[in-house]
């Protein structure tokens, strides 16, 4: 899938990546391992932004359905 957005976590240990398959993925920066996936929003055509909150406990993403989706970082 095409990458639309990528941001580092505030502790710089992870990277949050948004792709055009309606999935946000969290990767370990050092090893590149997939740590978690976040789904439920719609992102298959346009660039949307994703980010983490200040303490890296929540994931936020825009959606093509004009909503903002929020997930717990660990529980997804």
Verbal overview:
It is built from no helices and 7 strands. The strands form 2 sheets. It has a 4-stranded antiparallel sheet with strand order 1-2-3-4, with no helix packed on it. It has a 3-stranded antiparallel sheet with strand order 5-6-7, with no helix packed on it. 20% of the residues are buried. Helix content is 0%, strand content 49%. The protein is globular. The model has no long low-confidence stretch (mean pLDDT 93). It has 76 residues and is mostly beta strands.
Write the layout of secondary structure elements.
Elements lengths: L2 E6 L5 E6 L3 E6 L5 E6 L10 E3 L5 E5 L5 E5 L4
Antiparallel strand pairs: 1-2, 2-3, 3-4, 5-6, 6-7
* Fraction of residues in helix: under 10%
Uncertain residue segments? none
Mean pLDDT across residues:
93
> What's the end-to-end separation, in Å?
20 Å
Question: Which class best fits the helix and strand makeup?
Answer: mainly beta
Radius of gyration: 11 Å
Largest sheet: 4 strands, antiparallel
Strand order in space, largest sheet = 1-2-3-4
How much strand?
Answer: over 45%
Number of strand elements: 7
Instruction: Give the CA-based shape.
Output: globular
- Secondary-structure element string: EEEEEEE
What count of helical segments does DSSP give? 0
């Amino acid at each position: 899938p095409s990458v639309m957005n990528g941001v580092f976590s505030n502790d710089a240990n992870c990277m949050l990546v948004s792709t055009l398959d309606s999935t946000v993925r969290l990767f370990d920066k050092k090893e590149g391992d997939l740590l978690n996936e976040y789904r439920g929003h719609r992102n298959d055509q346009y660039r949307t932004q994703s980010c983490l909150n200040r303490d890296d406990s929540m994931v936020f993403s825009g959606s093509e359905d004009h909503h903002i989706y929020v997930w717990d970082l660990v529980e997804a």
